[in-house]
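Please produce the structure of this protein holding EPZ.
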Amino acid sequence: MDKLIVTGGTRLEGTVEMSGGKNGCLALMAGALLAKGETILINVPQIGDVRTMIEVLRALGVRCDEEPGGVLKIDATEIRTTEAPYELVRKMRASFCVLGPLLARKGYAKVAMPGGCDIGARPIDFHVKGIQTLGAHLVTDHGFVEVEADRLHGGQIYLNFPSAGATQHLMTTAALAEGVTTIHNAAMEPEVVEVAAFLNKMGARIEGAGTATVRIEGVKELRGTTFKLIPDRMEAGTFAVAAVITMGDVRIENIRPADVEPFVMKLRETGAIVDMYENAMRVRCNARPLATDIMTMPHPGFPTDLQQPFAAMLSIAEGTSVVTENVYERRFKYVNELVRMGADIKQEGRTAIITGVPKLTGAQTAATDLRAGAALVCAALAAEGQSEISGVEHIERGYENLVGKLRSLGAQINDNGSETKEAPTTEPVVQASGSPVL
Ligand code: EPZ
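Below is the modeled complex.
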């Protein structure tokens, strides 16, 4: 799909089910390399980033079979090569995290350095330092990171920032190291807990995941396992924003309330009514949302991945909101696109001042990254008139069947630039020439 066409103004109503979580899934797929055997992942989202990671694993000579219903079978008994293809790793940062598992399994790995992207430089220094602490000889050369180690050993790792990816990556690397590794100032995201639970099911000995101190006691070998992914909390937050911004009433199924709590607490401050159930939440709003301030932080703070959609909602809120992005240095590129739709936003460095306007108007906009695209979709759903959103390949990387799910809630949205299908008229539309339009 190259662009989306959205006609705003429809209240979203109904029930929608969330997919398995992208960010945990990619780390689990890299972790599957540790097992001499078959790993079966269940509830895998059909999204671009998962397809890219499948390509990476297949390029390593690992068997990957997709089955209907979101089942992915990965058999890493044989790993034919320990060099991950440059063009794939450059495309998706998460694929860099095959480095540690390859090193742990084969004693050597060569993986391209991931590029930065539109939200920031996203260096890998925590990953590099951690892997060196575990005994690897590491060289960065010609855009590649090359690592070698006869036997990895445990160590003490301190992360300057609680990096989710670095925590996941170093847990998978330390799982087969000799001795005990402790990661201090570890990330506490649900997806970190998910990866630890997955590794322990494979036979690893990991304690403390979900706290700032994670202890990994290395084992000799890990076996394949079957593991169901946790739901995508960022998708759930995005749909909650879509419900509020359209003053709708949406039941969002397949969520874990604890995972979305930081976000829901802030959403309630806007006047939204959020009813929580065991595996679902109902989000309603029957008036313009109220302004509120958000500051993104590592979990359990407000998630940076929902900063952009939430800001889209604040752009029509009553009052002025202050949005502070503390995780990435450049996560406001969508602001100019919202301003094109009539938003009143002043951005200075890591802060955006949003003065709510009564309504947005449809416009031609461009998505620059995954969550910026989500923000533009939410804005377009509420805007008066029609919007076009290009760069939709970014959205497809992380949202499974977004168009279909939104349409099931009543949204007027189409992909591939096809016109929004209006309800058929009772009278044939007649061209100027007099012949009816078929
Ligand atoms: C994960 O990225 C997610 N991606 C991101 O989601 C998410 O925004 C991020 O965690 C924060 O929650 C995946 O899990 C695939 P980080 P990750 O390492 O692990 C700095 C989305 O939209 N840092 O926690 O790469 C980094 O620059 C994506 O789904 C270093 O300085 O993020 C950033 O400022 C976007 N050195 C901060 O830490 C390092 O070695 C957090 O990054 C590593 C990170």
